[in-house]
Amino acid sequence: MPSLPRDLSLRLDAIGSPLPDPAPFRHAAVLAPILVEETPGDGPRLLIIERAGNLRSHPGQLAFPGGKPDPEDADLVATALREAWEEVALPPGRVTVLGRLNPVPVPTGYVIIPFVGLVDGPFVPTHAEAEVTAVLMPSLRRVSDPAVYRFAGEREWQGQRYELHEFQIHEPPLWGATARIVYDLLQRLDLAPARPPEAP
């Protein structure tokens, strides 16, 4: 089963490294929690939410806990930790934030900054029903399985090219910005499913 590399933090972007100005977009932050198994099983797991269907943005989609900054947030790390507490009752003190993944712009006008956090010991989420329909905790072994992965090509938006990934781990599947974040993480863990070779 997959295990976390000892140098995981070194494979991530530094938490405090400068971010480019997102204008005309605004920053948002998400937490990609990795839950470490204390007993034998499928190994480390991710925590992913299914957003409530009545939300104004991204209703019903799979996502990491997160959102836009509140005035009282000290920084984007604080935003990600606060949102994880509000959405799935993950105490900030239980999370060791190891670093960042690549920023992900989305059509709603935000650039998502994903932070990777390690959650030690058992954790039972309690989701806020107004925002979250369900909580998924797929293992890294499951999301890295080529049988659930589909590469859906490349697109260009706002002058930037990006790849489309899909993970059939739920209905609806994991796709869009969150799938790009998951694939980025899997690449840094040397677990990413292979993409089809480019045509000559």
Automatic annotation (TrEMBL):
Query: Does the entry feature the keyword Manganese, yes or no?
Result: yes
Q: What keywords were assigned to this record? A: Hydrolase, Magnesium, Manganese, Metal-binding
Q: Does the keyword Manganese apply?
A: yes
Q: So which residues are the signal peptide here? A: none
Q: Which CDD domains match?
A: NUDIX_CoAse_Nudt7
Nudix hydrolase domain location, by residue? 25-160
Listed InterPro entries: CoAse, NUDIX_hydrolase-like_dom_sf, NUDIX_hydrolase_dom
Drop me one GO molecular function for this one: coenzyme A diphosphatase activity
Specify the domain of life of the species encoding this protein. Bacteria
Cofactor field: Mg(2+); Mn(2+)
| Bilayer-crossing regions | none
Q: Which PANTHER family match?
A: MITOCHONDRIAL COENZYME A DIPHOSPHATASE NUDT8, NUDIX HYDROLASE
Name of the protein this chain belongs to: CoA pyrophosphatase
Q: What is the lineage of its organism?
A: Bacteria, Pseudomonadati, Myxococcota, Polyangia, Nannocystales
